[in-house]
């Protein structure tokens, strides 16, 4: 009998899990800090094309324009590519007013150097992009950035 | 009443709660890594300004049709050849030595029928309305790459580092060394190879 008892005593002690909450909390805080809750509810399809000559974007002074075919969240009638600014779908002719309105939501000292980020679906047409760019020119927002994914654009 | 020590709270479920929160934030997190092609739009059109006359040889015309085919300087071209063609054009330096506007750092063919110097050289891109955005971006990317490669070459020659790398480091805020001086040097390189890409109104076919 004593033989068995001896064996039992030699078993590994259970792993101490007291520090598990600490580790989990650490992860939790990381994700809490890194989280950016999505402000805009996308109503258009938005698959970005690849490019490799790309630069990083300064988030704080940016306003976004989304262009693409209507997505599942869209309730209207349009079938062709549409323009979304903020939460709204706007007509091409209204881009200027809508974007200037968006710019006023930025911090005041950054408004004069606002950058317009264009998130355009890869199936959109260049003509519509040109029209939007003309509107931005009119709105005096010359600095634009075409958001792309990283990758080779030449097969 | 006898002094009683408060019973200890069971903290065993703390990990579960933390896990719940953790999973919530894991799911909602979108770590934004937006990057893209930066472009400067021209100022609004002013009717009174007469556009300057540009010599045909200083203009590099890139046309994209609605089938996403390229026509560069009246010749059909594959997208993969565009970068080199644009570089050759920008780097040509057609004005001979001793004359005003001579480009002493150009390494191109110095053909009198191509661009005078990088400052004069203008790339003009125009697409059809039906051109795919993917192709549009690919062409913009290749033309941007031509400028970036030439800038890299010049900064390598003058300062021993690459323009794009130092610019990326400054933008990311992790440049080691004197940032102001580096910015000044970037400006010098930009003056040597200025970015002159114009866009014409798309054609309807």
From TrEMBL, chain A:
Region forming the signal peptide: none
Q: Where in the cell is it found?
A: Cell membrane
What domain of life? Bacteria
- Keywords, ordered alphabetically: Cell membrane, Membrane, Protein transport, Transmembrane, Transmembrane helix, Transport
Offer one example of a GO biological process linked to this entry.
protein transport
**This protein's GO CC annotations:** plasma membrane
User: What parts of the sequence cross the membrane?
Assistant: 20-37
Q: Which GO terms describe its molecular function?
A: transmembrane transporter activity
How does the record classify its membrane topology? Answer: Single-pass membrane protein; Single-pass type II membrane protein
Pfam families in the record:
ExbD
Asked whether the UniProt record includes Oxidoreductase among its keywords, one would answer: no
- Its primary localisation, in coarse terms, equals membrane
The family note in this entry says: Belongs to the ExbD/TolR family.
Against PANTHER family, the record matches this protein to: BIOPOLYMER TRANSPORT PROTEIN EXBD-RELATED (PTHR30558:SF3), EXBD MEMBRANE COMPONENT OF PMF-DRIVEN MACROMOLECULE IMPORT SYSTEM (PTHR30558)
Q: What is this protein called?
A: Biopolymer transport protein ExbD
Automatic annotation (TrEMBL), chain B:
Keyword Calcium present in the record's keywords: the answer is: no
Q: Which domain of life is it from?
A: Bacteria
Biological process terms in GO annotation: protein transport
Q: Where in the cell is it found?
A: Cell membrane
Question: GO molecular function of the protein, one example?
Answer: transmembrane transporter activity
Say if the entry is tagged with keyword Transmembrane helix: yes
Q: Return the Pfam families for the record.
A: ExbD (PF02472)
Q: Name one GO cellular component term.
A: plasma membrane
Could you list this entry's UniProt keywords, alphabetically sorted. Answer: Cell membrane, Membrane, Protein transport, Transmembrane, Transmembrane helix, Transport
Q: Which family does it belong to?
A: Belongs to the ExbD/TolR family.
Q: What is the name of this protein?
A: Biopolymer transport protein ExbD/TolR
């Amino acid at each position: 009998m004593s033989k068995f008892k001896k064996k039992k005593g030699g078993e590994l002690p259970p792993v101490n899990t007291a520090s598990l909450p600490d580790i989990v909390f650490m992860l939790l805080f990381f994700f809490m800090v890194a989280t950016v809750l999505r402000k805009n509810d996308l109503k258009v399809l938005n698959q970005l094309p690849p490019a490799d000559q790309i630069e990083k974007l300064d988030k704080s002074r940016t306003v976004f324009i989304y262009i693409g075919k209507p997505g599942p969240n869209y309730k209207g009638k349009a079938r062709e590519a549409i323009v979304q600014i903020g939460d709204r779908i706007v007509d091409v002719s209204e881009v200027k007013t809508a974007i200037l309105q968006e710019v006023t939501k930025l911090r005041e000292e950054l408004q004069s150097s606002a950058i317009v980020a264009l998130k355009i679906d890869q199936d959109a047409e260049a003509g519509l992009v040109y029209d939007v760019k003309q509107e931005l020119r009119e709105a005096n927002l010359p600095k634009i950035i075409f958001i792309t994914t990283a990758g080779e654009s030449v097969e | 009443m006898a002094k009683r020590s408060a019973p200890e709270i069971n903290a065993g479920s703390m990990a579960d709660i933390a896990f719940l929160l953790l999973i919530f934030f894991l799911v909602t997190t979108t770590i934004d890594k937006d990057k893209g092609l930066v472009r400067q739009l021209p100022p609004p059109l002013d009717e009174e300004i007469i556009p300057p006359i540009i010599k045909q040889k200083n203009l590099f015309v890139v046309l994209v049709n609605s089938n996403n085919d390229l026509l560069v300087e009246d010749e059909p071209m594959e997208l993969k050849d565009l970068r080199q063609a644009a570089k050759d054009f920008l780097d040509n330096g057609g004005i001979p030595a001793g004359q005003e506007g001579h480009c002493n750092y150009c390494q191109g063919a110095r053909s009198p029928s191509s661009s005078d110097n990088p400052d004069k050289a203008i790339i003009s891109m125009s697409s059809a309305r039906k051109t795919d955005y993917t192709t549009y971006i690919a062409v913009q990317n290749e033309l941007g790459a031509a400028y970036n490669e030439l800038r890299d070459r010049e900064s390598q020659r003058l300062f021993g580092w690459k323009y794009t790398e130092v610019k990326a480091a400054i933008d990311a805020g992790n440049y080691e060394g004197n940032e102001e001086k580096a910015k000044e040097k970037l400006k010098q390189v930009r003056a040597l190879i200025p970015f002159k890409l114009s866009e014409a109104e798309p054609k309807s076919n």
